[in-house]
Design goal:
Helix content: 55-70%
Strand content: under 5%
Number of strands: 0
Number of helices: 2
Largest sheet: none
Amino acid sequence: MSDIKTKDIKPKSVKTLDKTIAWTERIKEIISGVKSLITMIAAGGSLAAIVILVICLIGLLATSIFGIFLSSEKTSYRGSR
């Protein structure tokens, strides 16, 4: 980054460049975390299958195949009218 002269760049461009660099670093950290998680799951063997199963069950409940959480229907306590 030392080859870029900030005197030649407008201040708004410098802020954009700084934000881009920060996001790039965050993405690299996320990728590193995912790699280590995959390594831990692969090393676990049968424990990995259990972890994957639990994650899938949580995902199934969160998306709710019957639309319980995201239903747009109005409900009433007296039944349907």
